[in-house]
Predict the 3D structure of the following.
Amino acid sequence: MSDQPTTALSFAVMGAGGVGGYFGARLADAGAQVAFVARGPHLEAMRAAGLRIKSALGDAHIHPVEVSDDPRRIGPVDVILFAVKLYDTEAAAAAMAPMIGDNTIVLSLQNGVDGEETLARRLGAGHVMGGASYIFSAIEEPGVIRHTGRMARIVFGELDGQPSARAEALLAAFETAGIEAVLSPAIDLELWRKFTFLASIAALCGQMRQSLGPILATAETRRRLAAAMAEVAAVARAKGIALDEEVVEAHLAFADTLDGAMKPSLLQDLERGARTEIENLSGTVVRFGAELGIAVPNHAAAYAQLKKYAEGRPTIP
């Protein structure tokens, strides 16, 4: 793997939704060999008309596109972008075994802080890299990914923090595709930094059924958002993650630069009546808080309110 030229890297995307679909399409549009694993109407639309990206960074249309619902039809690749929902991690890890060769990298681009651990246990730590994606994107309709705003960045790295030729090759592949990417020597820190932000905006936006803008513009909900971020940061530090003391202020300042219409994926799932990642977001904060003796009242309240939506819209409100 590490001896191969960058242009020779082959990719598969496990989870061709907003994140996997967007970054996979950017790689394919730049000429990389990319196969997508999809299902249902999204799969059929991609087979019939390709994959479209609508973005302020430039639209793209990949047609024809290599797509299947069966990883066995794709076979081993050099890199798998693993972008399934957290609740599907175990099942997807088992299903994608036919795409994993001796040197395959599985780059997790999930939302939480425990996906990499699950993948390492399932596949072997040597196959897994940690990654944090910073993007607001979703399936607008089958076969079409809508990217909101201009943020589309990947931060990734080896789980042990060591430099590697394979990570450098992957970085070069992202850069060739015009994807903003950063190779981090401390990916655990980056994952928790993102989790502090994402789990908290998901909690508040989900509870209030509001996009990010109104949450930030209202003094009470802004304070609650800051408090929720502080709770996650306290849990992270108790777990030995050296988050800086300014992380909450930095996240709030960053949030103020975003489009107020942006919605975290949990809110989008709530609005569609789909399964949510609440168990892996506020639920994880609550569980770690209990284990470590850290009070997390804002996430506890969000979890209590939203856990009935973990499997989708409940039949009884």
Q: What stands out?
A: The first helix runs from residue 18 to 29. The CA atoms of residues 195 and 237 lie 13 Å apart. Residues 6-185 form a domain with the Rossmann fold fold (CATH 3.40.50.720).
